[in-house]
Amino acid sequence: MSWTVWGLGALFYFTGFYQRVAPAVMTDHLMADFHLDATALGHFSAFYFYSYVAMQIPTGILADHWGARKLLTAGALVATLGTLLFATAPNHYLANLGRLLIGGSVAVAWVTLLKLSIHWFPPRFFSTVSGIALLAGVAGAVSAGVPLRFLLERFGWRPVMGLLGLASFGLAVGIWLAVRNDPSERGYRSYAPPVHSTPGSSFMRIAAGLGRVLRYRNTWLLTLAPGALAGSVLAFCGLWGVPYLTVRFGLDQARSAAITSAVMVAWALGGPILGALSDRIGRRRWPYLAAILAATLGWAAALYWPELPLAWFVVILVTAGFFSGSLIITFAFVKESVPPELAGTVSGVSNMGVMAGPMILQPLIGWVLDRHWQGTLVNGVRSYDLQAYQAGFIPILVWLILCAAMIFVSHETHCRQQHVPLR
How far apart are CA 243 and CA 248, in angstroms? Predict the structure, then answer.
């Protein structure tokens, strides 16, 4: 029963990752159907992240107030509405609204999964279950690569997304029927520790916690820095990588999607491996900084090394994706930097910074591409040359360099919870 309850939440998390990177293999279809330039396409994809980021802190409040069952059901229903609106939209304005609804709805998945894990599994399984949840998300991203491209070429993007919308509705029904917030609702013992309520409303507690965590330097540094690591992977793999690979190496859409999927898998594997390494050596700052520098060098070499053979390009890019997974260190690092009662609040703030990376970089790269467009049209759609893409990817490297500088001046926690905050 635990796995069934949790698995339905994980399936919703799977669809969230699928929706996150799906535009990467639809760029040609979307630009043709909605008459988009690169800037508009970047904003279109980023609409998912606009609402996703905005929902991070409200999701925690709603999860406490409604419980996982109601919140997951509501999220799946809104995702149904957003996906069907996107699939049937006659113009890009309604398509943007659909993406906005999708991003805000799937933003509830991770927090509710964590809550279900706390209630339905023994504490010793929490890390394992969290790792399986991340694997489910990456599986969603991979399925939005080659498999989605195959379906698009066979049936068209609108029927495929419409079917996903109907599947989201079926998932909402399944969640409502099977998911319960706590095992006690089914007559079993709960694994969750007792909760001692504190005076005041949830809003006032959140507001007070925000005011406190924003006083400390590590909060700011570990909110602004990791967006570079998430943004580099999700801007490339989630939108611009497939058309770039087609231009640079002459690959078809399916092979390009396979490469971006490989980078996503490496990114997912890098997180737990580099996080465990940080735990083992008892340091946060130096392993994090070393991984960021390795990722920066990898992205720079893959994107700007002239006449780089495809095989070496893939090896270097996958390696860069692996080291970009070091952003997982952020959550332990920032949690340890403040008193334990603020750990949840500071984690939410930092996660907003993580997801701000793709939210900013996807449209920014599109804007730079349009500034370097040479006027070429293919089947009525703007086509960008290699020089335009190289200019467009410069913001990725700039943010990665700034990321390294911010981690360099951060305070080390030595993997211990700080009861006196690091200023």
Answer: 9
